Amino acid sequence: GCYTTHGDQKQYNRRCEDRLYQAELFAAIAAIYHLQPYPAAALETAWKRVLFNQFHDILPGSSIPEVFADANQEWRAALETGDRILQGSLMALAQRCPQPAPPHPEALPVVLFNPLNWARSEVVAIALDAAMAQTSWQAQAAEGQPLLTQPERADSLLVYVPAIPAVGYRLIWLLPTAFAQPSSPPAEWVLENNQLRATLDPATGAIASLVHKATDTETFQAGGNQLQAFKDEGQYWDAWNLAPDYQDHPLELFQLQSIAWIESGPVRQVVRVVHRFNQSTITQDYCLEINSPLLAVHTQVDWHETQVVLKAAFPLTVSAPEATYEIPFGAIARATTPITPQDRAKWEVPALRWADLSDGERGVSILTDYKHGFDATANQLRLTLLKAPLWPDPGCDRGLQTFSYAIYPHPQGWQQAKTVQAARNFNLPLQPCLVPPSASPATAGQSAASYLDLGDTTFVLAAFKQAEGDQHQYILRGYESTGTASAITIGGILPVAAIGSVNLLEQQPTTTDWTAIAPWQILSLAIAPS
After folding, report:
1. Hey, what CATH class is 7-96 in?
2. Three-class SS of 37-55
3. Strands 380-387, 308-315: parallel, antiparallel or unpaired by DSSP?
4. Whether the predicted pLDDT of 13 surpasses 90
5. Taking Cα atoms as reference points, which of 281, 289, 301 lies closest to residue 152?
6. CATH of 190-417, one of 2.160.10.10, 2.70.98.30, 3.40.50.300, 2.40.30.10
7. CB burial class (10 A; 0-12, 13-18, 19+) of residue 469?
8. What would the mean pLDDT of 98-106 be, rounded to a whole number?
9. CATH-assigned architecture of domain 452-529
10. pLDDT value, residue 438
11. Would you list the DSSP string of 57-102?
């Protein structure tokens, strides 16, 4: 039960960890360029707030209400610190980026930052202020090519941007353009791009079909994303436990209220499905972006049930004796058909950002933002969305809440499909930074570059920050993510050089031979500006 109980604490934790990772990363890069001092004290305070809230009974969601009232103040303070440092660092770096002459007198420069150590081609949402919202905009690459652009709302613009370098940036322009007439929504409930074709069942709101085009295979053997509810009294410890017999108590109270097209543009398609369950409302936006291998499900729940567990079921056309789940700095395989008493005791298991069921030829990953409870059989994955216990917090998980997950069908196994990277992309979107025109004189240089290029590798960057004991050094930390030997190099435009590997306490270099990475190895590398 603690994998799901008090989802707000899990959401705060994920947001804080991701925000502070990015704040450290870009603050370190800005400091190496001497754009601003590294905010070590503020980051240390923010991390200590987060670590304190990871204490037993706070992050698990098994405390009394007064504890969460205090904890939420600490989460919000850490987030505010991370936001302030991140935005300040991005603006400093954006103003340093070379900018050619604007292609139009009213063109606005936007610098897009990628916080992950692989190149990405994705949709980015650019927030528009009140003045900008009065104009229609078309995005253009620095090299002059038009970029696919779609208004999201009056105050946001969706742009598909290719090839944003690893731990790097790309400059684009926003040009004023004539207002376009909105297109008519499709007649059918089909979301389709070059990778997936998803058909929704208008009678149930579930996914009737999800075809992976490259392999021409159907993902689901029955309706996908089936909402299921069960009575769950927690087996003595309400917030802590999910009763072992909860599946014997299904609740059939779901009523489809509506299904409607929300967006059907060239960048993104969205269909909204609204369900009623007893006194609660579940709103799900099925979202498919151009060139994306993911069908995302953005969910808002207004929950007013007691001791009811809500799950999303994915009955699959693949079958496997094991499912794989992300754990810190690794992944673990668990049996889908329990044989031993230990296996039978694991009717609910945890995962960080993803779970996967693959048969070697193909598979399906479920990616999540902050939902961690899963169960699996040989041909089904199921994600726990909500658990509403009465004790020790009688109001736990009631009211309005939002979360997202995504379905990722793929060929081969999760390693070859780069599920780890897909889940990181899902949780860490690209960061746009609008540069004030007055701070944008025409300069020569690269309109896109990588600060830190670690090569095409299974190595995942987990931290880049100032060293604890030496303010003139930095620590690059990450891990090998697929259980295979790998190698890294240090490239990119950031003027740094590796000193050698250190341990997790950042003690003196243990070896200068750090390029070869063993399976699952955690590497901490001391870096110095050059």
Report:
1. mainly alpha
2. CCCHHHHHHHHHHHHHHCC
3. antiparallel
4. yes
5. 289
6. 2.70.98.30
7. exposed
8. 89
9. Sandwich (2.60)
10. 59
11. TTTTS-S-HHHHHHHHHHHHHHHHHHHHHHHHHHHHHHHHS-----
